[in-house]
From TrEMBL:
SUPFAM superfamilies assigned to the protein according to its UniProt record, in alphabetical order: P-loop containing nucleoside triphosphate hydrolases
InterPro entries listed in its UniProt record: AAA+_ATPase, ABC_transporter-like_ATP-bd, P-loop_NTPase
Protein's name according to its UniProt entry: ABC-2 type transport system ATP-binding protein
Family: Belongs to the ABC transporter superfamily.
SMART domains: AAA
TM annotation in the entry: none
Residues of the ABC transporter domain: 5-234
An example Gene Ontology molecular-function term: ATP binding
Keywords associated with the record: ATP-binding, Nucleotide-binding, Transport
Keyword ATP-binding (UniProt): yes
Amino acid sequence: MSIILKIEHLSHRYSSSWAVRDLNIEIGQTGIVGLLGSNGAGKSTTMNIICGVLNQTEGKVTVNGFDIREQPEEAKKDIGFLPQTPPLYTDFTIDEYLHYTANLRAMDKTKIKAAVEEVKEKTGIGHFSSRLIKNLSGGYRQRVGIAQALIHKPKLVVLDEPTNGLDPNQLIEARKMIREIAQEHAVLLSSHILSEIRLLCKDVIMIEAGRMVFSDSMDAFDNYLSPSSLLVTLENMPAESALLAIKGVNRVEMLTGKQVRIYFEPGLVINERIVEASLQNNWRLMEISADKTLLDDTFKQLSIQSAN
Ligand SMILES: Nc1ncnc2c1ncn2[C@@H]1O[C@H](COP(=O)(O)OP(=O)(O)OP(=O)(O)O)[C@@H](O)[C@H]1O
């Protein structure tokens, strides 16, 4: 994997308390990496440092091989940033604003017009080119924020909670757009919502209280948080005592006449035992699935545990 972002032993302290502690991260050229963490975990601090908005207390960040502190101009050529609050000038039209940001990026003057047209197309805002930003909806403002992050075709695009506060329709559009962006750029995206990260990201880095607690693929993350309950549908539902008699089952919760949530000792694989018991007793097993609905709760617990 060729590396676009490398973070080594990154730590940051605001006055006396540490917001980020010894982070080590590597990100490749394309795809979406999720930065997951509860409020105050250190996501924005990390992103602000990566993008050169904040100087770290300790450690090193390189983007496309350039140290963000030592060679900020070179590094920033390859960084597009959408901060948590997009830096929009609301009295500008979309066109004025995008020309302005392109100039700020010191882009070649002859290339600006085409670049503005291209990002408007990518973010679906072309039909509002001469509308004042203050007259746009929240969803469209967010698109303008993303457009300014892409204007100079950076290799790395950093999006701080880009889907926060969007309504369900805007969410679908925003996710689609982010997936498209990730085909050409490396995207680092933060969220405190596990289901959002699961929907969008191939890989996930979880930080809590400034420390990295997990970094791997989304599939590995689901195993890491593997639920210790199953949803089981049985045509002939037995008495609770019969289910509790299966080795490893420690609690059952009847959901409907045909569906039950079965809790088991963490780390055990008990699917086969349930299938076997069903066959022996003619319970007529219709469905058995991992209880993903509980994952968000597990995540909350995990966040609380690691913050202490
Ligand atoms: N300018 C600041 N001065 C002092 N402390 C700060 C400052 N900014 C953030 N912090 C603290 O640093 C820690 C990490 O904050 P940060 O904003 O990076 O977290 P986050 O994961 O982005 O959370 P959120 O999603 O709520 O923004 C928190 O404890 C926060 O209170």
